[in-house]
Design a protein that fits this description.
Low-confidence stretches: none
Helix content: 40-55%
Number of helices: 35
Radius of gyration: 29 Å
Distance between the termini: 70 Å
Largest sheet: 7 strands, parallel
Mean pLDDT: 91
């Protein structure tokens, strides 16, 4: 063996990370040099941010984020002579980063798995600051981290922080995995749920809509619940480590309850009590995108994180070209079949779905012949097994970190599912509290990340197939598109245009041209995309600035709540609600959440401040008035506070149903009628569907009927003059294609026509026109022209509602005998509310998808 003479020490640290890069003993396959944007960021760090405690650095996907982070890690280690941690969301990413460090000549070790199994030489090298340690987030965020406190922690893919940091401060019980644990914890939480809903959760087989419902319980709000919950969680051996993280702050935790699971966690993780994270001199967050809405701060529980972005004068780095295809917008096609033909042409595809089983099932539908379908176990250590395949599909749950498929490793990405319900907290905030603005940045980032898995380098090219109906709708909304960077705006606009009102043959011809990347694509497509990119203007969603400003108050509130300092927690929650309110209607739902927390925490302070109770009642009342949904009315009332009065439209529905019951119901005739209604809702022919729609409205306690006048909607549901729903049924629509501009214009008129017919102008506040169609898309001019009262739902939503109504009426009829009128009214109210069938709840379910742009 040849031995080279020379010093064995590193010598003095190079003056800058750029100088360090020149000195590194890189392998021949290392990157040929730093890009200009990487150099710009490194210089800005040196000039302005060496002592910034919390710093977020933005580099788009595929533009050298990991190398930039590793250079900073190695330079700080050499410059300070102190320990540096480089944290990744997953073990797979740790291995990828280690491979990059080895390639670039950066001294690093991997510390993953059980701390007892860490190689002693590697652990010692980190602790002696001789090498950077590459770890998972979980190595830092757990009940007893065994890694020594570093001078610097770098978090790669920090945009995924909520998924990995938030989960470290949570007990997440999946019913199908831990049925006994679910039952034990549900028993302690039942006093915080209304009786009908709680009973539905206990049934072995769920009814139509319960699987999608999620309710909020505050354990600290109900006497004795917190102690019982603590005992129940402490007895669960499978969750002892998870519980250990949140136990000291259990009093501030929220419980999200659904049929499929229970999630217990604080709304923002209290990372300040971690033994490692807050004690580092500097924390650096590498992200593909940095918004201004406070997403990274909430994810990591930090009050303030400074941003380091490329200068506006710097050229925007490009990470490849994507050709978006929207099969759902094509008329009279099978979207899966179209996607299968695209995959066959490309030879391989990455399928990302909301959960593994769904992704694998779709992957199997897309393969040709005997192509293999790989799952997470096949690529747990990296994507090489899939990249090496000549043909095949890799199907994974929609967590995009660690999926790196550059060059020709894969040329098709299939996105199946809008990633807005990764956890029960997200489902509650997005679906129930109508607080989607608070997680909009997170959802948008996930979509961007998913679309970019196969375009990792400037010359990469990949087809992105949007196969899910919800995601197709999401990527049509102007507020979604306008918030994206210019390249993505242009690519999505081009893809949408070339997927609407075109044949399968035209789409496949375009796919062939894209895969070839020849003159047909360069001259026929690129000029259009370039023009759209030049015209694109990035506009942040409404309320973003207010959400960013509220973060320090939110974080402080959660810290005080975890310490049971209720007066301070309530004051900070109220400050947060005030600032969030500056976002207007866009942040109204999230504001109601913080008003509610302020009210509850004020009530908990009443033990030491007798005057607090009146303030708590006022705050919760304000939350109810602010809330867009009905979730606040489903929460238990405060002690000594009378039960809430029903909304006028809900009272009207209860009164109508009670009058029908009091007049006597022929069970045989009723069963026949509801059977016909459900059958009709399963039909596509308008002559059969529309009468069923009216029958459903009557069972909801509405005055329901089909207006006889020309040009009217197909059924009107009116709860006196308190709330109207104009139902525009398009049951005979094809499953694919778009709702036309003409159909949107017709829907725009319906409430005004109904007001004229009823002699009551204007329509009651909150009234809406509901287009019922199996199509997932709307013509772009229709979106621009739609009025704010027009919404879109699927045929399946009506079928689900119909089945719930049948179940609720069955329960009422079985329990009505022997009750006084007052008791009968209570029965109807409780049963309809527990099934989500009061008019305010029905309207909430129908109005989650507005057609109009914000």
């Amino acid at each position: 063996m040849m031995a080279f003479k020379g010093t064995t020490t590193e010598g003095p640290a190079p003056a800058t990370p750029e100088d360090l890069y020149i000195d590194l003993p890189r392998r021949r396959d290392a990157v040929p040099g730093l890009w200009s944007h990487q150099v710009d960021l490194l210089r800005l760090y040196m000039e302005e941010h060496q002592e910034t405690a919390d710093l977020a650095i933005e580099l788009p996907t595929g533009t050298g984020k990991t190398l930039t982070g590793l250079l900073l890690a190695e330079w700080v280690r050499r410059h300070t002579g102190k320990r540096v941690l480089y944290a990744c969301p997953t073990k797979q990413l740790v291995k990828q980063v280690q491979a990059t460090a080895d390639r670039e000549g950066i001294k690093a070790v991997t510390l993953i798995g059980r701390h007892q199994d860490w190689p002693m030489p590697d652990q010692t090298a980190f602790e002696a600051a001789e090498k950077v340690a590459i770890v998972t987030y979980n190595t830092i965020f757990n009940s007893n981290p065994h890694v020594e406190v570093p001078d610097l922690i770098i978090f790669d893919d920090a945009h995924a922080g909520e998924q990995y940091v938030g989960e470290s401060y949570a007990v997440d019980i999946k019913r199908h995995k831990h049925p006994a644990a679910y039952a034990a914890v549900l028993k302690t939480l039942k006093p915080g749920l209304d009786g009908v809903f709680a009973n539905r959760l206990s049934e072995e087989f769920p009814d139509a809509s319960i699987s999608e419902s999620v309710r909020l319980v505050l354990p600290s709000m109900t006497n004795g619940m917190l102690a019982e919950l603590d005992t129940a969680l402490a007895s669960l051996s499978d969750f002892k480590f998870d519980f250990a993280v949140i136990r000291s702050g259990l009093t501030a935790c929220l419980a999200y309850v659904s049929y499929g699971g229970i999630l217990i966690r604080p709304i923002i993780p209290p990372t300040g009590d971690n033994k490692v994270f807050p004690r580092a001199r500097q924390r650096m967050y590498l992200s593909a995108t940095l918004g201004v809405g406070g997403e990274i701060e909430r994810a990591f529980g930090r009050e303030t994180i400074q941003r380091l972005r490329l200068p506006e004068t710097a050229p925007t780095p490009r990470s490849g070209r994507r050709f978006f295809v929207f099969p759902e917008l094509m008329a009279r096609v099978d979207p899966v079949d179209v996607t299968k033909q695209i995959v066959a042409r490309a030879g391989k595809a990455l399928v990302l779905g909301p959960e593994t089983a769904r992704a694998v099932a779709l992957g199997k539908k897309l393969v040709s012949n005997d192509w293999p379908v790989l799952g997470i176990d096949d690529v747990a250590d990296g994507m090489k097994p899939f990249a090496d395949l000549p043909n095949g599909v890799c199907a994974l749950a929609s967590r995009y970190d660690g999926i790196d498929l550059p060059d020709d490793a894969c040329r098709v990405v299939v996105l199946d599912g809008k990633p807005d319900q990764d956890s029960l907290q997200e489902r509650f905030l997005y679906g129930r509290a109508k607080a989607g603005a608070a997680i909009a940045e997170r959802v948008r980032t996930r979509v961007v990340q998913g679309a970019g898995r196969a375009t990792r380098q400037p010359n990469d090219a990949a087809i992105v197939v949007i196969l899910d109906r919800g995601l197709t709708k999401y990527l049509q909304q102007p507020e979604t598109i306008n918030a994206l960077e210019a390249d993505l705006q242009a690519e999505i606009q081009f893809g949408r245009t070339n997927s609407t009102d075109v044949s399968v043959e035209e789409v496949l011809s375009n796919v062939d041209a894209f895969l070839e990347q020849g003159d047909a694509w360069r001259s026929g497509a690129e000029p259009h995309i370039a023009k759209a990119r030049r015209e694109a203007v990035q506009i942040l969603p409404a309320g973003s600035e207010a959400l960013g400003k509220s973060v320090p108050h939110e974080v402080e509130a959660c810290v005080f709540a975890a310490a049971s300092q209720w007066d301070k927690a309530a004051a900070k929650a109220l400050d947060a609600a005030r600032v969030i309110g500056e976002g207007g209607n866009a942040t109204r739902g999230y504001r109601s959440v913080w008003l509610y927390l302020a009210g509850i925490w004020t009530e908990l302070n009443a033990a030491s401040d007798p005057g607090a109770h009146a303030n708590a009642v006022q705050l919760i009342s304000q939350s109810e008035k602010t809330a867009e949904g009905t979730w606040t009315r489903e929460m238990p009332t405060l002690t000594t506070v009378a039960s809430r009065a029903l909304a006028p439209e809900d009272a009207s529905a209860v009164t109508k149903i009670v009058s029908i019951l009091s007049a006597g119901v022929n069970i045989g005739k009723h069963n026949r009628q509801v059977g016909e209604m459900v059958a009709g809702l399963g039909e596509r022919e308008p002559g059969k569907y529309e009468p069923a729609l009216t029958a459903l409205g009557k069972l909801l306690g509405a005055e329901a009927g089909k207006p006889p006048e020309k040009g009217r909607c197909d059924s009107t549901w009116c709860w006196e003059n308190h709330l109207w729903l104009a139902m525009e049924a398009k049951s005979d629509h094809d499953l694919t294609g778009v709702i036309t501009h003409k159909e949107i214009r017709q829907a725009n008129d319906q409430l005004q026509l109904l007001a004229s017919d009823r002699g009551h102008t204007p329509p009651p506040p909150g009234s809406a026109t509901i287009i019922i169609s199996p199509k997932s898309g709307v013509d772009i001019d229709g979106i621009k022209a739609a009025q704010s009262h027009v919404y879109h739902i699927d045929l399946s939503d009506l079928m689900t509602l119909g089945k719930d109504v049948v179940q609720a009426w069955s329960e009422i009829l079985a329990s009505k005998d022997g009750r006084t009128p007052s008791q009968l009214s209570d029965l109807v109210r409780e049963t309809m509310s527990g099934h989500g069938l009061l008019p305010t709840q029905v309207r909430e379910g129908f109005t989650s998808d507005p057609v109009a742009a914000d």
